[in-house]
Amino acid sequence: MNKLFTYLAVSACLLSCKTSYGPVTVSPSVYNINADTGALPQVPGNGEGTTSESVDEVAGLIAPYKAQLDAKMNRVLAEIVTPLKKGSPESNLGNWMADIMQVAATEYYPDHPIAFAATNSGGLRVSEIGAGPLIVSEIYELMPFDNKLVVLPLTGVQVKEFINHIANSGGWPVSDELRVNRSGGKLNVKIKGRALDPAATYYVATIDYVANGGSNSSMLKGIPQIETGYFLRDVLIDFAGRSTAPIDVKSTGERMKL
Q: For residue range 237-252, what is the model confidence (pLDDT) as tens digits?
């Protein structure tokens, strides 16, 4: 009985784990279960209820989907030289992610100069991706949520408030274009080598969760979002797969000196 439910659960997962850049509609088969007795449904063609033969039948139905999922999730994207580790205020895992966000947003919106990219530390759901082949399933473990990459037009004043929040949170993953240095209790901010201009407009790449005020980013809530339509998870898979050389990311501590 438990084995049958396991197969059904895997089947549902297989139908829902396809990469999507927009809303997904799934129409699964419905199996009615007796609410009073909890009895399993009869499998068509078997008048004796659920048996080992019916379990084998379900397993046979699921097998091709399992093979597809295994092939997808075990696909090698690149080779990692130095383990990617999560940490604050800066880490090579965070640097790698934020830099991909920067490059991707710049590619998607060439007419909007992306000042920098940032994402919340809590969104990284693994502490380390080890050296060796980087496979798709590791990106799913890193980013299990359907957070989308977005771009926000921010004034210099709003950027300063956002960076203050990042610094007070202990540091978040930020791209190489940003430099934050705390000295004497004051934050010095440079974007692409230039001091922050309160009167300027900056296009900042982040995820919709943060843009909607998540991780206490209330200063961003309500600001119009330029949507890319891509899940960050899929962006990471795409750009990691484009790597022409092994991934070897360093953390120098230069981005967030807190």
A: 999 999 999 999 999 9
The rounded distance, in Å, linking the Cα atoms of 152 and 201 is 10
- The pTM of the full predicted model, rounded to 2 decimals, is 0.77
Give the confidence band of 48 by pLDDT, cuts at 50, 70, 90.
Answer: low
Task: Give the CA-trace dihedral at 175, 208, 136, 95, to 10 degrees.
Answer: 10
| CA distances, 165 to each of 81, 120, 198, 205, 217 (Å) | 33, 11, 17, 16, 7
- 224 vs 151: CA distance, rounded Å: 9
Buried b (16+ CB within 10 A) or exposed e, 125-147: eeeebeeeebbbebbbebbeeeb
Which value, to the nearest 10 degrees, does the dihedral of the CA atoms of residues 56, 62, 67, 73 take?
Answer: -130
Structural contact between residues 70 and 10, judged by C-beta atoms closer than 8 angstroms: no
Q: Is residue 68 within 8 Å of residue 14, measured between CB atoms?
A: yes
Q: How far apart are CA 139 and CA 137, in angstroms?
A: 5
The answer to whether 62 and 11 are in contact (CB under 8 A) is yes
Burial class (CB in 10 A: 0-12, 13-18, 19+), 110: exposed
Instruction: Report in angstroms the alpha-carbon separations of 58 from 2, 7, 49, 69.
Output: 13, 7, 14, 17
**Which tokens is 119 given?**
């994402």
Kindly state the DSSP code that residue 170 receives in the 8-state scheme.
T
d(CA 128, CA 141): 10
Round to whole Å and give the CA distance between 248 and 82.
5
CA distance 80 to 245: 9
User: Within a 10 A sphere around the Cβ of 2, how many other Cβ atoms?
Assistant: 6
